[in-house]
Write a structure and sequence with these properties.
It contains 16 helices and no strands. By secondary structure, the protein is mainly α. It folds into 3 domains: 69 residues, no CATH class; 84 residues, Ankyrin repeat-containing domain (Serine Threonine Protein Phosphatase 5, Tetratricopeptide repeat, Alpha Horseshoe); 92 residues, Serine Threonine Protein Phosphatase 5, Tetratricopeptide repeat (Alpha Horseshoe). Helix 7 packs antiparallel against helix 8. It is rod-shaped.
């Protein structure tokens, strides 16, 4: 079985490995002799050259030759920074490789809550990328490395937290690790008792701007949740900062199957029935009846 090349592979270090292997072989070390003989034919240890030891090292790491290994290591040095290596490991849902990169480049731990390299312009950290993939092993590894479960992305219209971004079935897992549902997360996850506690303690939370500049009403996953927010003063007409949509419009225009496994047309319909009727010449006159139709989109 091939050995795994270290994340921080260094050509000079590999050359030293080859020299050490050659020295051990020429001193009659049985393990070294067997290691080289499995890749190179020779009649006596004294006849083995440094190039043969380098070839054996390359084959140990799964490469067909020393030049191929050198080319690969050189390409890594040119193409990937440590931050990019971390990004690649997290995006591949490879907890083991993520751990090895952090071990090889400990300076990354001090930057673990900074936006991840090569991950769009949303300002998401490595932990949020792992949450998007429901990758529990990588999440735990990143938390052990110091990632802050309360950190939010740097998105211009409003930071995104782990409970905003996770699949609903991941919420309990994240809360066990310290994530605390705010009004937005409670609305999305259908946590009616938690939501009631929050908005009763602080009525201003119904107007708080969260991810994408949205209020908790944008996140309402059920009619019961929407009713709770409306009864506590939520503005049905409030437009979010990113999409410039009302909550009902957003529910119908933006498909978020991972965030909301069930269709939310019933929630949008409820909100439409609560909208004041607008007279063509301005002003509001009452509310539409229960048979009103949900809007079909548009700002």
């Amino acid at each position: 079985m091939s050995r795994e090349l270290p994340a921080k592979a260094n050509l000079e270090h590999l050359k030293e490995q080859a020299k050490d292997l050659l020295r051990e072989l020429q001193q009659g070390d049985a393990a070294a002799i067997e290691r080289v003989r499995s890749h190179v034919s020779f009649s006596a240890p004294a006849s083995v050259k440094l190039a043969d030891a380098q070839h054996a090292i390359a084959r140990d790491y799964g490469f067909s030759s020393w030049p191929k290994l050198k080319e690969h290591v050189d390409s890594l040095a040119r193409a990937l920074t440590p931050a990019e290596m971390l990004s690649g490991a997290v995006c591949a849902s490879d907890a083991g490789k993520t751990a090895r990169v952090l071990e090889s480049y400990p300076e990354l731990k001090a930057q673990i809550d900074e936006p991840m390299a090569n991950y769009g312009d949303s300002g998401m950290q490595a932990l949020l990328a792992a949450v998007q993939r429901s990758d529990r092993k990588t999440i735990d590894m990143l938390l052990r490395a110091g990632a802050d479960i309360h950190a939010r992305s740097r998105w211009w219209s409003g930071g995104i937290g782990v409970l905003d971004e996770c699949a609903p079935e991941m919420a309990a897992f994240l809360m066990e690790r310290g994530a605390a549902p705010d009004a937005h997360a409670a609305a999305r996850l259908g946590m009616i008792e938690r939501l009631q506690q929050l908005v009763t303690a602080d009525a201003g939370l119904v107007s708080a701007r969260g991810a994408h500049g949205q209020t908790p009403l944008n996140f309402a996953s059920t009619v019961e949740i929407a009713q709770c927010l409306v009864e506590h003063g939520a503005d049905i007409d409030a437009r979010d900062l990113q999409h410039e949509s009302t909550p009902a419009q957003h529910m119908l225009r933006v498909v978020q199957a991972r965030h909301y496994p069930r269709d939310r047309r019933d929630v949008a319909q409820y909100l439409v029935t609560r909208l004041p009727y607008r007279h063509p010449h301005g002003g509001r006159i009452g509310r539409p009846g229960p048979g009103a139709q949900a809007p079909r989109g548009g700002p």
